[in-house]
Amino acid sequence: MYIFDSVKKTKYKFESLVEGKVSLYVCGPTVYDDAHLGHAKSALVFDLLRRVLEAKGYEVLFARNITDIDDKIINKARDTGLSTAQIAEQFTAAYHRDMTAIGVRPPTLEPKATESIDAMSDMIQKLLDKNHAYRISNGDIYFDTASDKNYLSLSNRQSSENVSRVEKVSEKRHEADFALWKAVNDGSVSFDSPFGPGRPGWHLECSAMIERYVSSGEGKYAIDIHGGGADLLFPHHENEAAQTRCATNHELAAYWMHNGFVTIGGEKMSKSLGNSFFLKDALKAYNGEVLRFYLLSTHYRGDFNFNEEDLIASKRRLDRLYRLKKRLFGLSAAPIETEFKKTLLDALGDDLNVSKAYALIDELIASANDALDRDPKDKAYRQVLLSSLATIEEVMGFGSQNPYAYFQFGLDEATKERIDTLVIQRTEAKKIKDFAASDAIRDELAAMGIAIMDTPSGTFWEIRD
RNA sequence: GGCGGCAUAGCCAAGUGGUAAGGCAUGGGCCUGCAAAGCCCUGAUCCCCGGUUCGAAUCCGGGUGCCGCCUCCA
Description:
Layout: E1 2-5, E2 10-13, E3 21-26, H1 37-55, E4 59-64, H2 71-80, H3 84-101, H4 117-129, E5 133-135, E6 141-143, E7 179-183, E8 198-200, H5 202-214, E9 221-229, H6 233-247, E10 251-259, E11 262-264, E12 267-268, H7 279-285, H8 288-295, E13 304-306, H9 308-327, H10 339-348, H11 354-374, H12 379-396, H13 403-406, H14 413-431, H15 435-447, E14 450-455, E15 458-463
Parallel strand pairs: 3-4, 3-9, 9-10, 11-13
Antiparallel strand pairs: 1-2, 5-6, 6-7, 7-8, 11-12, 14-15
Helix pairs in contact: 2-3, 4-5, 4-6, 5-6, 8-9, 9-11, 10-11, 14-15
The structure holds one RNA strand.
């Protein structure tokens, strides 16, 4: 397994801290709104990484947090008249629903910020004890960036001179110092702590939860891999790393991985730009697996420019996998180790070279169709093929749906029945060689967006894009 | 201004020294009553200039263009 470390900017052979085990932590969502395609991309990338590591035999501890307390959640609660807990609960459920739809498996651990306040208090206390943090008169506690000689080493910034746009607080020792704890005295949402009522700083959450739930203890690093979107490298991950480094005797992560952005028209998709494309809306028009296939189709480190034409091209590519599945429908075989699995994992093991993996899948499909044309009854071949397809489902996370249902995405039962009836009528017409009638029915179906295909085992139909 | 990324056929996109994977679209063939599906065939010398090398899309230097981080952000 090779991984590109986005801090050292080099691809390295991956060696886990503990033989046979991997700890992976990814920054999860702040649950104040629905997930957009950028959230989906990030979740998909690390879901794929986790699947690949597992397929390679590692036992993976995969943690992804839920930030369920934050100014944005408070604002949303105020705007809607709901409580922050209700907002957080609502959008956590929405997040889970959307992630499930695109085949992102639930993480091993999903710690919530509000349930980890004591872990954060512990870390703040350690930082205070070691003089890496200080308290100002209103009760806020700040991290002293100047006290960490390695601060800015993660994001490769020379000095904090350019880090001047953080909020101005006169009592801060340095402009770059960031809040660990915000004291609350006005009765708004707060949590009890040894430092009085208040709320934790965002950067602190991840460090504290990693230390509490994931860290293996006293090695050189707390965890193997820390992941997230490229926009988190600075300041979020820089600050996380500083907190962990100063509060404990270890660095935060042995490897850092950052995924590129989803862009629209070449510009980063973000809430602040107002060009967000919500996953739940995309899911109304497209099968979740199609979105998974599409969003994973290019290398994770590059930016991903979303557009519907490419999405349709991806859908057509995935369609081919499902047509092959139709040809094998109902067949099963005991899984065996295949050469395909080895080459697929080799491709993905090279810093998740998905393009290469997709090419292997395309080639598998073409050769399988060819082989099935020549000899549909070759049992040994079918066993190998079924095993290869099972590998695709397990590692890539797509291809697991019923192939007939896949091609009926979005149709209601009445429409399906209507189509089935027409197909039967057409078959009857064909039987008596009334081609004018059968072609007329085919045209009628085409007008409904339905394509039909005659095969040796019967006539099948598909919805067209 | 500081730091970083990207530029490969109509489109998407692999490929870090030896003469360009894969997909979508296009055109052709086989198959088909005709189609669809499927299979096969079909296209680029890799942004520009210079350099290193027997040899570079791949390394170095200089340009041009686009994007991102530096503020919450996947």
